[in-house]
Amino acid sequence: MENFKDLKWYSQFFRKCSKCGTCKSAYSYGPPPTNATICPQGEYYKLDSYYGSRSKSFLGHAILENKVDLTDPAIQEDMQRAIFSCNVCGGCQSQCMLDYKPWICDYIEEMRHHLVNMGIGPTKAEKAYQEKIVKDHNPYGETHSSRFNWHKDVKDLKTDGDTVYFAGCTASYRRTEIAKSTASVLTKLGEDWGVMAENEYCCGSPLLRAGLREEPEKLAQHNVDYINDQGFKTVVTACSGCYKVLGKEYEKWWGLKLKAKVMHTSEYLEEKMNKGGLKLNKVPATVTYHDPCHMGRHLNHYEVDWDGKKQWKGAFIEVDKPGLYEAPRNVLKAIPGVELKEMYRNRDNSFCCGAGGGIKASYPDLALNTAKTRVEEAENVEGVQKIISPCPFCVTNLGDGAKALGSKVETIDLIQIVDQAL
Ligand code: SF4
Ligand code: SF4
Questions:
Q1: How many CA atoms lie within 13 A of 142 on its CB side?
Q2: Does the beta carbon of 98 lie inside 6 Å of ligand 1?
Q3: In order of start, what are the domains of the chain with their CATH numbers?
């Protein structure tokens, strides 16, 4: 358990930012060397004060040292936009190589929390969904009871078993085809699985990303208590946001430990495949794969030299990458007829879909602009017919981008193509 730290604590790291600007683009020495844009916020606003984690270190100094008058409503508005229009995608974090690196995403969210405490956040849209989540346990303003409408199409649905499918809000309310495909896949594989039914609440991700703390803790406590009490052995989710929050953040922030193993559907399927339990039929398609930030670079683990024995106190030593980069790709490659072609930006250097970090609700033009950029990147890969992503939120935003562009490239969830192949 790490507990939340305040801005002053993070200042020991963001003060080490050398302002080199490496975080403004994705660069790899190769071979072959590559260079590409990585920061959706900076690309949209084209302002240095918005670009990458360098800008956030400037703003952290300004806030802590009272260099800006945060009682001035015009400055409050500017500061809110600068901090809350970041996707917290981690693209900048994956580029930085100084001691600031391990803390970047957590620090940006702490900046948001700091502004929330000053009454300068969350955004209007985030406040609206905060109320909806408190009332109905979902950010979409739908009733809690309608969360389970998708269940009606699933035969013999249970609320017990070895495995519980945590659908999450987006698949339950907005992308029910993804929830139904997940149910269909689990059933076709003969798994002993069930759902939480009325006991499934929002995982808390939208609130955590907005710098809020109290409500997500209550949601976490509820979900953990129920899953532990029911004795499920595995929690499987098809959403990258739920995966990160359930698998990492409940314990990290609040010490709330799930007894069940948390798995994304892609690693669940990969494990099944490695045991020889996945017989996939032909689906002819040329596809590309979009890495969701929350199940990729957000899961990177950083080793820090706390006692200074290896380098110096607080030195960033190395990064371990347990993020799910290969499992979804391995599942895709196992489907006969599927040809997987990579986009230029992938894995640690992937470009965000544009939706995360509260951006789809608070800054929809920025979210759409980013999605269009990503879809254009997919269109530039020769022959690609489909963008596959293992996250309903990415699928939705990229789909919106494709629609706005009039693109012929289809956007679907990984679980849908697996369902087709089974
Ligand atoms: S955050 Fe890291 S990469 Fe960006 S300017 Fe600072 S030291 Fe350089
Ligand atoms: S987290 Fe993403 S959007 Fe935010 S500054 Fe870093 S690269 Fe830009």
A1: 15
A2: yes
A3: 1-121 (1.10.1060), 144-274 (3.40.50.1860)
